[in-house]
């Protein structure tokens, strides 16, 4: 039997698998994506795209279809205590996307697959994995397609095959955690009497119910009914059961009708001990699961992809060594660990009743009146502050000579306005989208020593890592005349790179393809900066 060889094998074509396939296609990586199901699911599980995921979609060049079809949810209205609801407003999010983009998962998958197909990518459906075998140089996978058994070999495998991952089970990787023991209800329905732009959450001793408005006027409803806990859990929910449950929980009755789908489900929080096992990487729900509070799960998976795929491409191109891929687990596992901790605590708080529940409601109302609390809450939900600056390698790149406001290794780089080549405004993120690795060298104004440093560094970097990164000179303004014109010039006329990123004369900012800082160095010393660049790729 002939073995089908590829560089990367992706198992699973949910949101994470589809995004991974898109990134690999964009970067020109040879890959194959296998999916067990014959087509996309018509049932929508996840429904919200957080700001950080939208930024990653922008790096991929697929953000506009999502913005066109989604609904920018401005925040949440919380019915906790008293007649007047409390609000959590999302405009505090420090991103170009200060909202939760509400769009059902089936449409998310449709957009990603359409984008993939338009660029020559493909998903191989109805392929069921039978066996996985690791070797030193890669991974063998046996799969069956319409009764025909096929064998694949890949240098790297991405397990994007969900909470019940076949890859995880075949490799006997533990999924550490526990079930949370609460039965939730969910579904997409029409609610004729509800005219809301905010997410509406009702919380009391009878249970909890949240309504998420879709762009077409329908709603996702999700919650739990205290009277329906315990005993065997049914999978299917009838419309009359949902109506009875909502009538029990809500102070005001809302009629629900014309369901697209209804279901009961349970929740759990679990995580694999290491996201990398040999040449296999666990991504999304195959690596971690948590309850649905805050719309975190799918987004963490998309961000896993945003962290991993460019690293694999960097290794395949020979720019980095195999140990470079260990940083995937080091950077991503703590993010999911924190989300699991927070959502588990939030579920315990939501499940409180009696005097504890009353105390939670009244204290919640008092706290949410504070603007700074709303800002912290909104930015945490959006994942824009999911930085990697505390990992060992990123801590080792921290430059103490920089100002306190300077952005450091591992931190997310916020989008900035640039005056490019002295002719037009452009943002930083489109540069990252087009180029991948971007290096900014702040020369302040015309200073020959710094210009020489920039050109010498660019030459050495290109010699060590051919065609990998693009170097830009950054000047505050004025005329920058050089004897050579290979390096484009950004004029920091808005002072964004100075004020927001802490760049100053002589500083070098190396930005990764996922928009995080590789390192920020203030020495203007070619030898030192090159040493950091080489050490970064291990």
UniProtKB/TrEMBL annotation:
It comes from the Bacteria. One of its GO terms (molecular function) is monooxygenase activity. The keyword Ion transport does not apply. Signal peptide: none annotated. Residues 5-343 form the FAD-binding domain. It holds the Pfam family FAD_binding_3. Its cofactor is FAD. Keywords: FAD, Flavoprotein, Monooxygenase, Oxidoreductase. Gene3D superfamilies: 3.30.70.2450, FAD/NAD(P)-binding domain. This is FAD-dependent monooxygenase. It comes from Jeotgalibacillus terrae.
